[in-house]
Amino acid sequence: MEGFKALPVKFSTKSVASHWLFCKEHTVREKNESKPAGRTLFIVNVPPYCTQDSLKNVFSKCGEVNAVYFHQKPTAGLPPQEESAFFPKHPPVKGFKVAYVVFKKPSELQNALNLSVTEPLVLSSKKSPIICGVRKWCEEYNARIPDPEAVQKDIDQFMEKFDLNAAKEAELEKQAMEEDNEGWVTVTKRGRKPGFARKESVGRQILAKEKKKRSKKELQNFYTFQIKESKMKHIIALRQKFEEDKKKIIALKQSRRFKPF
Prior knowledge:
This protein is an alpha+beta fold.
């Protein structure tokens, strides 16, 4: 199994079918304090219904489990931390996944690697039950209807943090626009007269106006060769117009609609 140890598990004591977890010691070049080498167990083929509590309960017989992390794919980092419980920025881990079980001591990791079982390990127990079926759907539905007071509190905290960061940025820009010891002033996006942020459409309009101003300032037919070229183009245009008028007159004569007077 390319260094992996196979462990059979099943959903509950009543389940007949079993599932296989494949685990080995977590060893990567990129170090992470939350997933220390020598104390972290890497597990693949984790079923969708498996939870962190159930996995922690299964490996608690090997020793004290400090943390359990779920990822969609193997990674040395940690799962993204959500700032808000009501407005998540990252999608939840769904389907089959990988897990990292962090033990307190290195000896406890070795206990997990040397674990031998005669019967499949049970994931759902009284200590850590896995909710499924209609009950799970009801809880997911109720979770989509949050408490208005809790949502308002979360929004107020976010806006307070946003206003604080905006005030800090404004103060830093104000300090940057002040003259230094040599008399230099740093130009920022706000300028001396701060206003609204420039959008892409506004930028295009400004560029179009500048181009129009430059075209008015350009001197037309300033050099001798430019004057000659303009005269030649004018003569060619007159000759072309004359030929077109002759053709029109001939066409009118042929159609007998020519009325010179």
